[in-house]
Amino acid sequence: IRADGAGLAGRTASGAQAWPGFEDSAVPPARLGAYLRELEALMASHGVDGLAYGHFGDGCVHLRLDIPLERSGNPLREFMTDAAHLVAAHGGSLSGEHGDGRARSELLPVMYSPAAIGAFEAFKDLLDPRDLLNPGVLVRPRPLDADLRRPSARPLPAVSSGFAFAHDAGDFTTAVHRCVGIGKCRSDTSSADGFMCPSYLATRDEKDSTRGRARVLQEMANGTLVTRGWSSPEVHEALDLCLGCKACSSDCPAGVDMAQYKSEVLHRTYRGKVRPIGHYVLGWLPRWIRLVTAVPGLAWLANTALGVRPIAKVVLAVGGMDTRRSMVTFAPTPFRTAWKRGGAQAVAAPAGAPVRPKAVLWTDSFSDGLSPSVPHAAVAVLTAAGYEVIVPDEQACCGLTWITTGQLDGARKRLEQLLGVLAPFAVNGIPIVGLEPSCTAVLRSDLRDLFPDDPRALAVARETRTLAELLTAPAPIGPGDRWTLPDLSNVTAVVQPHCHHHSVMTFSADRSLLTAAGAQFSTLAGCCGLAGNFGMEKGHYDVSVAVAEHELLPALRAAAPGDVFLADGFSCRTQADQLADVQGVHLAELLAAHLPQRAGSRGGVAPSGTVA
After folding, report:
1. What is the pTM of this model?
2. Which of 94, 239, 323, 374 is spaced 20 to 30 Å from 127 by Cα?
3. What would be the CATH architecture of the domain defined by 152-274?
4. Domain spans of the chain, in order of start
5. Distance (Å, rounded) from C-alpha 35 to C-alpha 559?
């Protein structure tokens, strides 16, 4: 917690942005209590707030304050001057460990005598007579408010229908200034189950870190070094290798959500203009899936044609994709088609079961048209757990691919239709089960950011759950004593959580379920590298593979024959298939294969989900 403190303290409890400047004061430990009480009173008198943390045992206090820089007068200078006199009165120091620098050098005369200040100047002049080294700091300092970055920020032109940025007062500029430069995104946090930042771990280039991208966006907002606004080439270069994994939204202490910022930039750059071809091919992928799978025989024809490598390479090249990739395989019979025909396989409810609670199985475009075995398995598991499974009559797309390519108007149209389908269930408290993590994350997060004032969006977000979240929830939402988890004690699995699963829903429910079922498993930390459209796009293949080499591919190579590769994300399974020739299984498939009614006929785990 202490290591993340600077980021956590970047916003006050009310959500106001807090600034450094007086973030490192220190007093003798015996005076700390009195100092903190007087400091709190001083803050109240200046009308500012902040979160204090630090090395209290050493008397060091880290504090960022929501000083209203836009207020008339000079509130920063006024507070800093009074605070400096307060800490000096307690026999303390303006800086306990960080140094004085530009922020506090002007205030050193509060602590030191004129003779001491003169000695500092003489020593500096002796060693640096031309004042080349760090001029304006400590000796003959520049004013503490002379070089502030934030007040120069100018409002960006308003464009309707972007994200709401509700946690940032609806302002993109405020959002990108969440980054205070801590640099956690430059660390390998996989040992602590962190996923941030996959592109930086692959390239080790500052511009490919969350911090580097935030700095470029801040320069754009300030209108200083980046001057062409949304279309600035520096902005698009910095965002190009952002995988949109959203790991920073949970792993960054300041809550930076670079995936959302990238979508907003693409939205504002290309709205009403011709877009890159990949935005139409990959950004509209659910539309193409539905078209191909809706016509009998067309899926077979498409799969056959795209299975011919020269044809596939032409399609990939024309579609703005890397020709080293393979095309997706369309399902001959989508899940919803089979369901409507009565062909969905369900397991009978337990004998003598009471009235069965309802659960809505929301079938996203990928599960329905590319991996129909996943929703079929989910029906079996939910039915065995005592639920009455409801599959809505109308297909509802979450608009994920429109969001990731910055086509927010198109995403909103699809989500509006989705709300019409799912909201009637949500407002009645019926849980909605999502199978594809990235799509489920849209319902849990992006939906509210795109429909901030629609109570239906809040209801759908509240009732949407992953399969593991529903199965591990307390009764009456969860199955409780209605069923017993399938026995997975003979399963050893390599588990790849989806990045959006990690960042939005967290993987705790899945981990608890697998443990309770007796499975032996290792959980990978870090992105698989495909990240939806990212790894398919031309120019991203090498970075996509490098990201996969960080965790996924070494783990698959080290797995024993017969180990299961468990990955709920379609992208994660696709990456393992294309780069390691390993077929993954979804949690629903793993559980369904071990239901008592199926275990005998399937021999436990489906062979397609094992590592060769």
Report:
1. 0.87
2. 94
3. Orthogonal Bundle (1.10)
4. 5-127, 152-274, 335-609
5. 57
Q: Which residues contact 491 (CB under 8 A, 6 or more apart)?
A: 518, 519, 520, 521, 564, 590, 594, 604, 605
Q: What is the pLDDT of residues 355-386, one digit of tens each?
A: 789 999 999 999 999 999 999 999 999 999 99
Residue 50 pairs in a beta bridge with 65
The pLDDT tens digits for 413-434 are 999 999 999 999 999 999 999 9
DSSP 421-441: HHHHHHTTT--EEE-SHHHHH
Q: How many CB atoms lie within 10 A of CB 554?
A: 12
Q: In this structure, what are the phi and psi dihedrals at residue 430, rounded to the nearest 5 degrees?
A: -85, 125
Q: What is the pLDDT of residues 302-353, one digit of tens each?
A: 999 999 999 999 999 999 999 999 999 999 999 999 999 885 544 455 555 5
- Residue 398, classed as helix, strand or coil, is coil
Cα–Cα dist 440/506, whole Å: 12
Of 101, 100, 106, the residue nearest 144 (C-alpha): 106
Beta strand pairing status for 60-65 and 50-55?
A: antiparallel
Distance of CA 98 to the CA centre of its chain: 30
Fold of domain 5-127: Alpha-Beta Plaits (3.30.70)
- Confirm if 288 and 370 have CB atoms less than 8 A apart: no
Decide: 194 and 251 in contact? Cβ < 8 Å: yes
List the structure tokens of 603.
């021999």
